[in-house]
Write a structure and sequence with these properties.
single chain, mainly beta, 3-stranded antiparallel β-sheet, 5 strands, elongated
Length: 89
């Protein structure tokens, strides 16, 4: 049987706006790897992600960075909902 990976949100924390004017979010995901034929599994690991409303993407070395909205579509629906709620204008 193949190893499965189940990602779940362990917690989200929203932090107030700083100098850039937008709140940020810290998301803690638990990844549980399992295989019913492996006695050493399941194993759970933790991944922490920090999300900002915008990313600074460099255009080239001689120009200022361009602000691009952070794509959260690959995040859990709960995280997407929190981002939508706190990143409103």
């Amino acid at each position: 049987m193949a190893i499965t990976n189940v990602r779940t949100v362990q917690r989200c924390e929203a932090y107030p706006a700083q100098s850039d004017g937008d709140p940020t979010i810290m998301v803690v995901y638990n990844h549980t790897f399992d295989d019913s034929t492996d006695d050493a599994l399941p194993v759970t690991t933790t991944v922490v992600k920090h999300l900002s409303r915008y990313q600074e993407l460099p255009i080239d070395a001689e120009e200022d960075a361009e602000r691009t909205a952070t794509d959260v579509t690959s995040e859990d629906q709960l995280v997407q909902d929190i981002c939508a709620a706190i990143w409103t204008d």
